[in-house]
Amino acid sequence: MPILRKRKLLYIFLTAIALFLLLIQSKLFNHEQLSKNDWSLTSFGDKFDFSYLPNLSDSLKNTYNRWNLKSSNTEPLQASIIEPNNVQFNFVNNANNRGTREEIIERNAKKYTELMNTEVGKPQDASLVPPPEDKQAYTRANATIIALVRNSELTKIGQSIRRFQKSFNGKFNYPYTFINDEPFTDRFKQKIKKYTENAPVEFVTIKSEAWKKPSSIDEEKEAKAMQVMYDHNIAYAKKGSYHNMCRFYSGQFYNVPELQKYKYYWRIEPQVHFYTDVTYDVFKYMETTGKIYGFTVSLYDIEESIKTLWPETLKFLNMGDNYKYVNKNGSFQWLVENLQNPHKNKIAGGYSTCHYWSNFEIGDMDFFRGEAYNNWFKYLDSTGGFYYERWGDAPVHSIGVSLFADKSKIHWFRDLGYNHDPYYNCANTPFTSHCVVGKFSRYEHLNDQNCLMNWLEYDKIKDVYKRT
Ligand SMILES: Nc1nc2c(ncn2[C@@H]2O[C@H](COP(=O)(O)OP(=O)(O)OP(=O)(O)O)[C@@H](O)[C@H]2O)c(=O)[nH]1
Ligand SMILES: [Mg+2]
């Protein structure tokens, strides 16, 4: 064979190898690109319907299409867009959390334990009001402690009240408002008055229109939906009164006539624990700082119970001029996070399902009474989601405050030791005892349900427990 031909063959062979290697490299590179993009995607499922966003630009449609990995050269995601007919929130992972779901859970659990073990005192962003020497003469904030409760829960609410009196209210004497869908019995009232000591007490029966299922609910559709949820093991799926309770706490409680005279409320429930000797007036702290919502525990929800809550919310925000209700300093990233429990985000149509656990709440009812929250609630109610799904008051309150309030007005009461089975908030404070510092749940396997590190790390706000 002539030398020239041999060289030509060698040249062709080497070129083929080079091309082959290039091809492999580009495939690998593309793959890496895609998986890099993958973790930062907003988990909108393929069935998510964007038809209500008629003005969505092509580039944003491409952004959504990235969920299906159809396009890899789109513009960087914007964390939020708040424009008429184009309100959207994208998870941009600004805390730069990386790794597998398991690694993220483990890292977050470790950070949580470390944080809770670090000794912390009281909030530093206000001058705190100590317990008065003379409770009778004390000028309290405009506030009440509320408990929606059944007559049959007397013993369990009694335990909570005794703990609450010892922890906080025995020192400040704020009035209680007990609420029920049925009249309270004399026995209930008498016993309660023993637990509440000297605090004023009011017993309220809810008007049936604020409690009962609206007549617009299609009962056949509801029964079928309840059965599906029941088959998916969703707690209280078939319990009509639970659906009523969730709707009541979501959008009705702050309109109860007997509560109109109050601005602030602290919600308590049967069988909860308070582990901290509170030495400052918590309501006055809310008042001085202008905070509108306080919580202790934040966690993921049962995604099957709120499948359309977030899509319906986006729909509402993209109607008319409703975009104006969104507070540009809201806590959006926490709402659309998709790393710790991505399956939840996908089933809940782009909502992480992270929420404040509403069995403990300290809030400003004027926020809930305001136009933004109220119009949004009315829209939610009109969809029937409190009955065709099992929307809880916790995700509804949480989405509402996260969208419509500045994050700095939402407060994690890190220093208040609390438990509603199976979750805890137990910080290392000199005033807290009888709970295990840093423990999140009675069950170790539930640590993946803790949302707190997400709340702290995305949409950052000042740490008000830090001395400056
Ligand atoms: N009056 C009245 N109160 C109710 C009813 N259903 C629930 N509640 C109250 O609403 C609050 C929340 O109900 P819970 O049954 O504790 O719901 P939950 O916290 O999701 O569930 P648990 O984990 O079982 O405590 C509690 O204060 C209950 O006492 C009801 O039908 N009537
Ligand atoms: Mg409860």
From TrEMBL:
GO terms for molecular function: alpha-1,2-mannosyltransferase activity. The active site is at 361 (nucleophile). This is Mannosyltransferase. SUPFAM superfamilies: Nucleotide-diphospho-sugar transferases. The keyword RNA-binding does not apply. One of its GO terms (biological process) is protein O-linked glycosylation. The keyword Transmembrane helix does not apply. Pfam families: Glyco_transf_15 (PF01793). Belongs to the glycosyltransferase 15 family. It is found in: Membrane. PANTHER family: ALPHA-1,2 MANNOSYLTRANSFERASE KTR1, MANNOSYLTRANSFERASE KTR4-RELATED. GO terms for cellular component: Golgi apparatus; membrane. Keywords: Glycosyltransferase, Signal-anchor, Transferase, Transmembrane. It comes from the Eukaryota. It is a single-pass type II membrane protein.
